[in-house]
Amino acid sequence: MKEKTKIKKVRRLSGETRVPGDKSISHRAAILGSIAEGTTRIKSFADGDDCNQTLKAFRLMGMRIGRRRESSTVEIYGRGLHGLREPDGIIDVGNSGTSIRLLTGLLSAQPFFSVLSGDSSVRSRPMKRVVEPLRKMGAQIGGREQSNKAPLAIQGSSLTGINYDSPIPSAQVKSALLLAGLYAQGHTEIREPLPSRDHTERMLEVFGARIEAEKGATRISRTEGLKAQEIDVPGDLSSAAFFLVAGLITKDSEVNIKGVGINQTRNGIIEILKQMGGDLRLDNVQEISGEPRADITVRSSKLRGVKIDGELVVRSIDELPIICGAAALAEGETIIQGAGELRVKETDRIRAMANELIRFGVKAEEYPEGIRIIGMQRLKGSTCFSYGDHRIAMTLAILGLVTEGKTIVVDTSCIKSSFPGFWEVLDKLAG
Ligand code: S3P
């Protein structure tokens, strides 16, 4: 039975909160901590299912990993670049696309055999984007549908660096190659059509790898060793996004979210919400563990439609569902273009948002690589569906806060893949 959640209209949202540690950064800290020498301590590690699957993968490869739940701290007793052991079973990444793609890069360079798989969503997502360039480096990877779909079977081998022009901006592709590049002969260089998130590069530098970025190219050299670190993970802007929009679209509201990551390659949503007329303020900006963070405050605002394309799409890719939610209540038209990647996320997020906004009485039209939304003053209550996608589920829940009549979101258990405390934060802000 799919979990259904009834959402009630709220009068206002107010107060202060934190959100879970950044998911992208937590995955990378777990990976680099496992192949560094010494104990890496990760504070505010993302506590959702996705990052837990990454930890599980390393435990299966013999790593000792400690965890203090109360403080969300993870300790990894790293055994160096060559300390992983052949897993004696399939590595199951669950719903996590980042785990499977980054691990494919790392495991291609290990002297053992491994198999990576995941849930039905992960098994339907394209893997050729990492398999093809890794094969050019000498990787031996096989999989379903001409190696485009998981399960992926990897026979580790010795790799050689390549120069790769990626046809898409993708941090997962770039990161898979950088991780393989740590072990490959010579240098590995990746160019992207637009810059994707740079968390891997920043963290590799913190751990002492030889990495440089110049004129759109990222280059890594074979490494002798990485050194364990103390990492403090900022709050996940992709999780904060739901409460930023919630604070803007509910009346008489003021919401303050502490210590949220605002990395330039990820913060498109801040720019977009400001363009829409949103009252957003950033305070206490500081850099910790190589990543910038700030406290973000939003106040109820009258929003207007915007046009979103190009680099702004890449910088807000995971926030586009909730931006569609904001657009549903904005005055005028919002058009998102050049966002074809949304079709191959946890679900087809263009189709999902168009279908579900229509249920709320909003005019929404799909394009092959985007969506057009005409904002409404009022939404009508409906039973709507998450398609098993955490970000769609949370977007629909936020819309339910301002909807006349009853809203039921079907299939909400997926929210725990990135934000297990979502409902508690919502209850707290709603008073
Ligand atoms: C991620 C990269 C992005 C993003 C995903 C997380 C990462 O995917 O959508 O949620 O942590 O590297 P792509 O690399 O497919 O753009």
What is this structure, in a nutshell?
The chain has 431 residues and is α/β, with parallel strands linked by helices.
Explain what the structure shows:
Helix 1 runs parallel beside helix 8 (about 200-205). The protein folds into two domains: about 5-20 and about 235-430, Alpha-beta prism (UDP-n-acetylglucosamine1-carboxyvinyl-transferase, Chain); about 25-230, Alpha-beta prism (UDP-n-acetylglucosamine1-carboxyvinyl-transferase, Chain), CATH 3.65.10. The mean pLDDT is about 100. It is an alpha/beta fold and about 425 residues long. It is about 30% helix and about 25% strand. The strands form seven sheets. The chain has a four-stranded mixed beta sheet. A four-stranded mixed beta sheet has the order 4-5-3-14, covered by helices on one side. Strand 16 (about 280-290) and strand 17 form a beta hairpin. The protein is globular and about 60 Å long. The chain has 15 helices and 25 strands. It binds shikimate-3-phosphate (S3P).
